[in-house]
C-alpha cells in the first residue's frame, strides 16, 4: 500500500498504510531500525509481519512488521498532497492525475463503484435485460441539437468525404430510442453507459461526458409503475452505498457538505416519496414568499430554483412532479387527453440540493396520436406495439445528491482537457 503517515519514536516506528480498499488505514508497528530515508508520506511500500490484536480502542488489528521494503519512493517536498492536511476540492482539482490519492476522491470513487454495482444488481434482481446501446449513432434523441459530430480527419489524405459512415454520425445523447426498440422484444430493459452533450457550458451542473441510467418498461399504462421503479431504484442503491461505504459517505457529510445528509433505510430515504402535479407545483411557486429570477407561470418549464424550492416546501424529501404541459415535452410522451390544460404523462423526480435527478414518462404507443406529430418513429408502433414507459437518471447527479458535492466535475474520475492532466 501507500504510506499515509510516519511517526518515529525512540523505541518504536508507527506507520499507517492504505491500499485504496477502504478509508481506514492499517497501523504498522515496527522497530526504528527498519526506517529508511525513502520511507516517507506517499511512498509505496511492501510490509511483511504478523497481524495481532491492537491494544487501542480505535482499531481491531495492527501489523507487527518484520520487514519493510520501499517499492516506490515519494518526494514529500514536491508532492502536492501533504500529510495530515485536509485539502479542499478546489485545491486538489488542480492535480487531476494525483487527486485520486486524496481521501476525498478515493472515498468518492469507492462510492461510485458501489453505486454502479448496486444499480446493476437492482435491475438484474428485478428481471431487466441489460442492453449495450450504441455510443456512435445517427439519431438525436433529445432534439436539442447539442451533439458531438464524428468526422474523419486522416493526415495526408484529402477530406472529400468527412463522414466515416454514409450519413452524419454523432456521440449519443441518450439510449432511449434504442431501448424502445428492445422493449418490443423484452418486457423490461435498461442501459447504463456514457452519454455526451455538446452544450458549451462550464457551470457547476454541466458535464460534456456523463453516465446515464435509462430503463424502459413494456405493458404498463400507469405512470405510477414508472415512479415506483424510480423510487425503488434510488432507495435500493442509496441503502446499499450507505451500508457498504459508511465511512466514505460520512467523510463527505462531515467535511465536504455538512448541510447535505442522505439518511439510510431508517430515515427519509425509507419514507414514501411525495407526489404533486405540475399544476400544483406552479400554484405553490406562485404563492411563495421567495422572489424567483424566473417568474413561475403555467406552461413554462420549471427552473432549478423552482425545483429546489418545491423540495424544500415539501419537507426536503424526494418529490415527484407529474403531468407536464403538452407543449413542454417531446413528441413521444403520452397524451393525457385532458383539458383545458393539455398535459402529457411525464414525471420528474426532484431531490434535495440538486433539483431534477430523474425524468421519465409513459410513451405514446397509439399510432394515430403520433402520426400527427412525426412521420418517422412509426414502424415501432405498427408491429406489436404495447403501452410502455421509461425514465433516465444522470449518474453523476445522483452522486452529487448522495454526497452533497457542489461542483459536478468533482464526482468524475478524470476531468477532461485539463492542462495539468498527464493521461
UniProtKB/TrEMBL annotation:
Ranges for domain Aminoacyl-transfer RNA synthetases class-II family profile: 109-413
A GO MF term: nucleic acid binding
GO BP annotations listed: asparaginyl-tRNA aminoacylation
PROSITE patterns: AA_TRNA_LIGASE_II
Keyword Aminoacyl-tRNA synthetase: yes
UniProt KW Aminoacyl-tRNA synthetase keyword: yes
GO CC terms of this entry: mitochondrion
Annotated keywords: Aminoacyl-tRNA synthetase, ATP-binding, Ligase, Nucleotide-binding, Protein biosynthesis
Coiled-coil segments on the chain, per record: none
EC number: 6.1.1.22
Transmembrane parts of this sequence: none
Family: Belongs to the class-II aminoacyl-tRNA synthetase family.
Name of the protein this chain belongs to: asparagine--tRNA ligase
Amino acid at each position: 500500500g501507500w504510506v499515509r503517515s510516519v511517526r518515529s519514536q525512540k523505541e518504536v516506528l508507527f506507520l499507517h498504510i492504505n491500499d485504496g480498499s477502504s478509508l481506514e488505514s492499517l497501523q504498522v508497528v515496527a522497530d526504528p531500525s527498519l526506517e529508511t530515508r525513502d520511507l516517507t508520506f506517499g511512498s509505496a511500500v511492501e510490509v511483511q509481519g504478523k497481524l495481532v490484536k491492537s491494544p487501542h480502542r480505535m482499531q481491531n488489528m495492527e501489523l507487527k512488521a518484520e520487514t519493510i521494503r520501499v517499492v516506490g519512493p515519494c518526494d514529500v517536498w514536491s508532492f502536492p498532497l501533504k500529510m495530515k492536511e485536509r485539502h479542499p476540492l478546489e485545491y486538489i482539482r488542480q492535480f487531476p492525475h494525483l487527486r485520486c490519492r486524496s481521501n476525498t476522491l478515493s472515498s468518492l470513487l469507492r462510492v461510485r463503484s458501489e453505486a454502479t454495482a448496486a444499480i446493476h444488481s437492482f435491475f438484474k434482481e428485478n428481471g431487466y435485460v441489460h442492453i449495450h446501446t450504441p455510443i456512435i449513432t445517427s439519431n438525436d434523441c433529445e432534439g436539442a441539437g447539442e451533439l458531438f459530430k464524428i468526422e474523419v480527419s486522416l493526415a495526408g489524405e484529402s477530406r472529400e468525404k468527412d463522414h466515416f459512415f454514409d450519413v452524419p454520425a454523432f456521440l449519443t445523447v441518450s439510449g432511449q430510442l434504442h431501448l424502445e426498440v428492445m422493449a418490443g422484444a423484452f418486457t423490461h430493459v435498461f442501459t447504463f453507459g456514457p452519454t455526451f452533450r455538446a452544450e458549451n457550458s462550464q457551470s457547476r451542473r454541466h458535464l460534456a461526458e456523463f453516465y446515464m441510467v435509462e430503463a424502459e418498461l413494456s405493458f404498463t399504462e400507469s405512470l405510477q409503475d414508472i415512479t415506483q421503479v424510480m423510487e425503488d431504484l434510488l432507495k435500493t442503491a442509496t441503502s446499499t452505498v450507505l451500508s457498504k461505504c459508511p465511512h466514505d459517505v460520512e467523510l463527505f457529510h462531515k467535511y465536504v457538505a455538512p448541510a447535505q445528509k442522505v439518511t439510510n433505510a431508517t430515515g427519509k430515504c425509507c419514507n414514501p416519496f411525495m407526489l404533486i402535479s405540475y399544476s400544483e407545483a406552479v400554484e405553490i411557486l406562485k404563492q411563495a414568499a421567495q422572489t424567483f429570477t424566473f417568474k413561475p407561470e403555467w406552461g413554462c418549464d420549471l427552473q432549478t430554483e423552482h425545483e429546489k424550492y418545491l423540495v424544500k416546501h415539501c419537507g426536503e424529501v424526494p418529490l415527484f412532479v407529474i403531468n407536464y404541459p403538452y407543449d413542454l415535452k417531446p413528441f413521444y410522451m403520452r397524451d393525457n387527453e385532458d383539458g383545458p390544460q393539455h398535459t402529457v404523462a411525464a414525471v420528474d423526480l426532484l431531490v434535495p440540493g440538486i433539483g431534477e435527478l430523474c425524468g421519465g414518462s409513459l410513451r405514446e404507443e397509439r399510432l394515430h396520436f403520433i402520426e400527427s406529430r412525426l412521420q418517422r418513429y412509426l414502424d415501432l408502433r405498427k408491429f406489436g406495439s404495447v403501452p410502455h414507459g421509461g425514465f433516465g437518471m444522470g449518474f453523476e447527479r445522483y452522486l452529487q445528491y448522495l454526497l452533497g458535492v457542489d461542483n459536478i466535475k468533482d464526482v468524475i474520475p478524470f476531468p477532461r482537457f485539463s492542462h495539468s492532466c498527464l493521461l
